[in-house]
Write a structure and sequence with these properties.
Blueprint (H helix, E strand, L loop, with lengths): L17 H13 L4 E2 H11 L8 H13 L3 E8 L2 E8 L3 H19 L1 H9 L7
Antiparallel strand pairs: 1-3, 2-3
Helix pairs in contact: 1-2, 2-3, 4-5
Length: about 130
């Protein structure tokens, strides 16, 4: 998942749109149970009531991108209407945040190794 960081935002909104965060939070709430894209779409629109509606295509595209990145798991099922995916979390919220931190730090260290190490070592939150 290509991460774009908006440092003017806080929390997961630094890297996710409101509907994307709502989708992940819904799947986290389900635990290992998982949900179809339709279930996620219905819940996201319920959670964001008053903020406009999100298309089902936007939800499906986001879920598939996150699957391709290895953040979500899925299982194929067959039912009325054909094949569908049931999405479940590979990481809980803390694991996802660690995944994001590793991706960002890995990129910073690969492109700005000296500067990144200096920033970490010289900051007030540096490990002791």
């Amino acid at each position: 998942m290509p991460l774009k960081i908006d440092t003017s935002e806080e929390g997961l909104r630094m890297i996710l749109k409101d509907y994307q965060e709502a989708a992940l939070r819904y799947i986290w709430r389900l635990g290992g149970e998982g949900a179809s894209s339709r279930d996620v779409w219905v819940q996201v629109n319920e959670d964001l009531k008053g903020e406009g509606t999100i298309s089902r295509a936007s939800i499906i595209n986001f879920l598939n991108v996150v699957v391709d990145e290895g953040v979500l798991n899925y299982a194929e099922t067959t039912g009325k209407g054909g094949h569908r995916r049931i999405y479940s979390m590979k990481y809980d919220e803390a694991g996802f945040k660690e995944y994001v931190a590793r991706k960002v730090m890995g990129k910073l260290l690969s492109f700005f190794p000296e500067e990144t190490r200096k920033a970490i070592e010289g900051s007030e939150w540096a490990p002791s």
